[in-house]
Design goal:
Blueprint lengths: L15 E6 L9 H9 L8 E7 L6 H4 L4 E7 L9 E5 L18 H11 L5 E7 L12 H4 L2 H17 L1
């Protein structure tokens, strides 16, 4: 017999999450996923989990829910040099106008807004964005971006060390 939602036990999860986003079919657009894949074989702190979010949108709601800190790694196209690594916090992310979003375009910002409405948003969110060198068709990161993977991992893990120090 199904249990009412409030009586279902919540799955055990770590308070901290590294979430890799991106499309691995478009070279550097997949940097977040490739970083998380590299981290999956590492000896990580017990309170840190990694998750390959690929191109999921609202499906990530449960993954993000009730975390202390989430570090998102993703490609960020903009007016910076390819290979530039940017650190953004939740307040740096500009939401899209509500009328501009369809169910086929729900991404991180919309998923975070939904989590806030449900009262389950992460306490802290940091985005480590990487300016891509190429988003052409291809399964591998460009050498310029692949070289950055160890540094991106270092930056992601440092986020949790700085949280623990507070």
């Amino acid at each position: 017999m199904p249990q009412p939602e409030q009586s279902r036990p919540k799955p055990a999860r770590t308070p901290n999450l590294v979430l890799g986003l991106g499309n691995i079919l478009l070279r550097d657009e997949g940097v977040g996923v490739r970083v998380v894949q590299a981290m999956q074989g590492m000896d990580l702190p017990a309170d840190v989990e990694v998750f390959d979010g690929a191109t999921a949108g609202l499906d990530l709601l449960d993954v993000l829910a009730d975390r202390r800190k989430v570090v998102v790694i993703d490609a960020l196209a903009g007016e910076t040099q390819p290979g530039t690594i940017l650190r953004l916090e939740a307040q740096d992310l500009a939401p899209r106008e509500a009328g501009d979003v369809s169910l086929h375009e729900i991404g991180l910002l919309e998923t975070l807004a939904a989590a806030r409405l449900l009262g389950s948003a992460p306490q802290e969110l940091v985005v480590i964005g990487v300016a891509p060198h190429s988003i052409d068709w291809g399964l591998h990161l460009t050498p310029e971006i692949a070289r950055l993977v160890p540094r991106i991992i270092e930056l992601a893990l440092a986020e949790f060390a700085s949280s623990a120090a507070r």
